[in-house]
Amino acid sequence: MQVGGKVLFLLCGMLWLYRHDLNPVNSIVAVVLFFRLAAYGVAKTSLYSKKELERPSPSLARRAKIYSTLIALSMVFLLLSTAAYVFFSEQVGGNPGSYDSENFYDGAFHNLKQPDDSSGSFFGTMAGYMIDDGSRTPSSVLPTIEFEPIEMNDDDVSITWFGHSSLLIQSPNTSVLIDPVFGEDNTDPLFLGPKPFDYEHTYELEDLPEIDVVLISHDHYDHLDMDAVKHLSTSQFLVPLGVEAHLIEWGIPSTSIQEFDWYQEGDITDDLSVVFTPSQHFSGRGINPDNTLWGSWAIYLNGHDLFFSGDGGYSDEFVEIGQRYGPFEIAFIEAGQYNEAWADVHMFPDQTVQAAIDLNTATLLPIHNTKFVLALHGWDEPLEDVTAEGEKRNQSVTTPMIGQTFLLGEDMPKHTWWRNVSVYEPPFLKRSPIVGIAMYASMILAVVMVRTASITTPARVEVTYED
Is the pTM of this model over 0.70? Predict the structure, then answer.
């Protein structure tokens, strides 16, 4: 009865956590239970049992040794797995080495200006991840549009957003793909990355037109997809300093790669030229951080001026870029995956709009959202807040549906499509008052069962015999 009471109380406690949006804590409870069961199984063996063979239960010292061994074995497994990934996984890419750049010193690349210390608390952020009210993930399949190219006149440019930071920009003669991430499992090492949201339509690289040029902003897994790079092996790649090493590791010939430092310009085709501009961020795919450069792109295609921010926190450099290379007809600016704990490397919605104003752009298209859960905000919060802030500050914001292709400058889409996604409805176990009453009643029953069993169980009496 005592064991049954403890099990019942544990199950009720886990249900209570689930009903109070603390289900991530249940994952920790599950890990603790796993170690308890493993320790129980080991205690049945002869390991560390010297002088304890006659004891009905293992001593505190033996239990400590068993737990220490299990924890040590787990740590060794994690370290070996990490080492195996870093040294043997193709995903990590190549070894960039060192570069003759004013932005590279002390063995790493650096931002133009040292970001201010974050105002967020690391432990507070970690505690935030223990609470999940269901708002970070769409409650249903996201409505999207099937990708279809559209007819263009000689001076047209078309744009298609595929969620997060992946964009297709086309002129009648040139197609440009930016930060292509189309895989299901390539967004983080060891397949531990976030799972993409469910889209009504799926997008495959095979469905796109032939890609002439690929732009990469930095080498993080959610912007540089190894499988996409391999598929696009016949394209020309424009990348930050250091990223060439990754591409060569994945089979792209060096003749198809052109590296850029900040404020370096390049004429790519008859109707395409670019400038690689700074952003306030960081980089890294393995154990060496910031061994490749990161940044943004000013893009001049078919007589149109565009800007792609990549990832980064807000800085005065947007004003500099706007003055030197603007005005822009459209700017694709990061708006999503923000938090006070990393406010120096990711922008909040009001900063996204301010960056658009600094850049002197006619239209803002918020990117870096609506595909993964990488932060604590609601999945639709970036689009909603940027749209509201744009209206407040008289900054035009375009919000196409994912997969929708539109012409730059003509009927820029302003759909509030995310508002049509069904509102999160807590499941029956969370919202039912009957379940809640039964849960608390079961907790009381469990306590009674344990208490009753402890009273009725006779005390163990140890008798020693002397010769």
Answer: yes
118, pLDDT greater than 60? no
Beta bridge partners, 169, equal 159, 176
Residue 62 confidence class, pLDDT cut points 50, 70, 90: confident
Kindly state the greatest CA–CA separation across the chain.
Answer: 109
Partner residues linked to 301 by β-bridges: 272, 304
The 10s digit of each residue's pLDDT in 282-293 is: 999 988 899 999
- Name the range with the highest mean pLDDT among 3-7, 190-194, 380-384: 380-384
Residue 467 — very low, low, confident or very high, per pLDDT cuts 50/70/90? Answer: very low
**Looking at the predicted structure, is the pLDDT value of residue 23 above 50?**
yes
Distance CA 39, CA 70 (A): 8
What are the structural domains of the chain?
Answer: 158-420 (3.60.15.10)
Rounded (5°) CA angle 178-180-186? 150
Q: Are 43 and 58 in contact (CB under 8 A)?
A: yes
Average model confidence (pLDDT) for the chain? 90
